[in-house]
Amino acid sequence: xxxxxxxxxxxxxxxxxxxxxxxxxxxxxxxxxxxxxxxxxxxxxxxxxxxxxxxxxxxxxxxxxxxxxxxxxxxxxxxxxxxx
Length: 84
Known about the structure:
Layout: H1 2-7, E1 17-18, E2 21-23, H2 28-41, E3 45-47, H3 48-61, E4 68-69, H4 70-83
Parallel strand pairs: 1-4, 2-3
Helix pairs in contact: 3-4
């Protein structure tokens, strides 16, 4: 995708999202695993709804930066929900 976008400057815009572990509210084992990863290895996590909100916001209103880190995605989701 990045190469395609480079070949078509002005026609298409892409960015890279680098989320942490993506969590769903109903997946308790994965939530426990993410808690352990965060405390032992510092691996961040993001809720499925947060990453969805953040990426939709970026598609609609333009990409803020490249790449989008987990912290950026969480912040963008919070800002987007506070706008609504």
